[in-house]
Amino acid sequence: QVQLVESGGDLVQPGGSLRLSCAASGRIVFSTFAIAWYRQAPGKQRELVASITSGGSTTNYADSVKGRFAISRDNSKNTVYLQMNSLKPEDTAVYYCNRAYGTFWNWGQGTQVTVSS
Predict the structure, then answer these.
(1) Considering only CA atoms, which of 68, 69, 24, 75 is closest in space to residue 53?
(2) How far apart are the first and last CA of the chain?
(3) pLDDT digits over 40-95, tens only?
(4) CA 9 – CA 82 distance, rounded (Å)
(5) Strand-pair category, 93-99 with 35-40
(6) Dist CA 13 CA 33 (whole Å)
(7) d(CA 90, CA 22)
(8) What is the average per-residue pLDDT within 7-36?
């Protein structure tokens, strides 16, 4: 059983920054999995925001966040990060992490990001 705990969400003004963290625990070799950040806004489907390969050498981003968000990981801490800059109101959502490919692990509780003045 894998547990995912997301944190770092907050209320922030447009143009602001946040850094989200995703900590994984359980009987897994975290460093062998590609991981992604997803988000779900009210009334919308969950969408993939950014992904990172197991070793961290390759990252991919949704067009809506390219140039503003950066995903990274520290496999020694079983943790993936999402640095979010130049935040916009349309970035408001609950953010989750999970596998980038294959069968999802159980979803964590997510972390709420609200961008509003």
Answers:
(1) 75
(2) 40
(3) 999 999 999 999 999 999 999 999 999 999 999 999 999 999 999 999 999 999 99
(4) 11
(5) antiparallel
(6) 34
(7) 22
(8) 96
- Distances in Å between the Cα of 43 and the Cα atoms of 31, 39, 51, 54, 93 are 34, 12, 23, 32, 10
- C-alpha dist (Å) from residue 36 to 33, 82, 109: 10, 10, 15
**90-94 long-range CB contacts below 8 Å, 24 or more apart?**
90/41, 90/64, 90/115, 91/39, 91/65, 91/115, 92/41, 92/116, 93/39, 93/40, 93/41, 93/44, 94/9, 94/39, 94/40, 94/41
